[in-house]
From TrEMBL:
It is found in: Endoplasmic reticulum membrane. The keyword Oxidoreductase does not apply. It is a multi-pass membrane protein. This is Derlin. PANTHER family: DER1-LIKE PROTEIN, DERLIN. One of its GO terms (biological process) is response to stress. Keywords: Endoplasmic reticulum, Membrane, Transmembrane, Transmembrane helix. The chain crosses the membrane at residues 28-52, 73-97, 103-121. It comes from Thelephora terrestris. InterPro entries: DER1. Residues 143-180 are annotated as: Disordered.
Length: 180
């Protein structure tokens, strides 16, 4: 049951995060590789071998930081709170269910997610590193970016917003009324 819950949550958070990359799939893949490598390195002293939960926490952290201010989420339909704190709630749940070791492993996801969000979206420290190399663009089939990376000088703001953008799901358009 836990695996199904994690899989569904991973899909939801990855879909929400993907909406901020608007046609830059290679950049998202590059940053996911960076987050994955960071999680593996941070988990070496802990001696953990399964890092899927930490990756889910990292994706939740970045997705929450990029979401519009005031966006709410629900945990199992029981508790509603700001989406920015969702990753911390996951670490707290890991602490309650799995103990200190599970929480420490999940906390590495918050650290990797914060490095990703701060380095690529918020500061100018790792802005160049946030753009995928040419070999990955060619592998994925993503054209080179038309301009500077998000938040770079001359680029868009550090928190990209598309008019009418959703944080998850699809915009199917207005459609046509049946029988009209």
């Amino acid at each position: 049951m836990n695996f199904i819950f994690d899989l569904a949550m991973q899909y939801r958070n990855a879909a929400a995060l993907e909406s901020y990359y608007d046609g830059r799939s290679a950049d998202l893949a590059w940053q996911l590789l960076f987050a994955s490598a960071s999680i593996i390195v941070l988990n070496i002293p802990l001696g953990t071998f399964v890092h899927t939960r930490a990756l889910m926490v990292a994706i939740s952290y970045v997705s929450g930081q990029l979401s519009p201010p005031g966006t709410q989420t629900s945990l199992w339909g029981i508790i509603s709170f700001p989406v920015r704190y969702f990753a911390y709630a996951l670490v707290a749940i890991d602490f309650i269910i799995g103990g200190k070791d599970a929480a420490l492993s999940a906390l590495t996801g918050i650290i990797a997610g914060h490095l990703w969000w701060w380095g690529v979206w918020e500061s100018r420290a790792l802005r160049e590193f946030g753009t995928a190399p040419g070999w990955l663009r060619a592998l994925i089939g993503t054209p080179p970016p038309p301009g500077p990376a998000p938040g770079a000088p001359g680029g868009s703001s550090s928190r990209p917003r598309r008019p009418g953008a959703q944080t998850a799901g699809y915009n199917w358009g207005s459609g046509s009324r049946l029988g009209g």
